[in-house]
């Protein structure tokens, strides 16, 4: 994905691609750590091992770099291939894969730090929040909604409002743990805990949106 962005937005020589990648890596480290206002283009250049002029040659300003860093982080954790329909695999398995990737993304320490930064309530954080939403969560939401619509067309899901179902799915995946992490009062989860959480969430989701026959089979009467 870095290569594709570089071809469309900047110089195409291998050396330039390496520098662009280094700048993005530096931005992904520094923005969550120091905040948007506390991260200068000078600091990013120093962290990336390039000149400030090189940073500006790839990214016109700090906002452009911030957006690119958020977009790349989301694409690393949740690539487009994750939302490609696999007709040989049960929809449950794909929902679980998406759920695990999303949970891993939102619970990264830098994701928690960035979330606190953009919800600080300052004048600058309001604009930052919109940039963050448009370059990250909104794109993930759109990709998942397209995935759901395809599964609906294929008869794998029975959903009237795919957009609302998308919001519900990600809200369920976040769960109480994400809120506790934002407050700084959560205990670490084991991989087994995460897996159990994602599986239970997908089960809940499918009980609401699986085709009627499958839904009836899931909810068996008590003998």
From TrEMBL:
Domain HTH tetR-type: from-to ranges: 17-77
UniProt-listed Pfam families: TetR_C_7 (PF14246), TetR_N (PF00440)
Taxonomy, superkingdom: Bacteria
InterPro entries the record matches: Homeodomain-like_sf (IPR009057), HTH-type_TetR-like_transc_reg (IPR050109), HTH_TetR (IPR001647), Tet_transcr_reg_TetR-rel_C_sf (IPR036271), TetR_C_Proteobacteria (IPR039536)
Gene3D superfamilies: Homeodomain-like, Tetracycline Repressor, domain 2
Feature: DNA-binding region: 40-59
Keywords: DNA-binding
PANTHER family: HTH-TYPE TRANSCRIPTIONAL DUAL REGULATOR CECR, HTH-TYPE TRANSCRIPTIONAL REGULATOR RUTR
Stated name of the protein: TetR/AcrR family transcriptional regulator
Lineage: Bacteria, Pseudomonadati, Pseudomonadota, Gammaproteobacteria, Lysobacterales
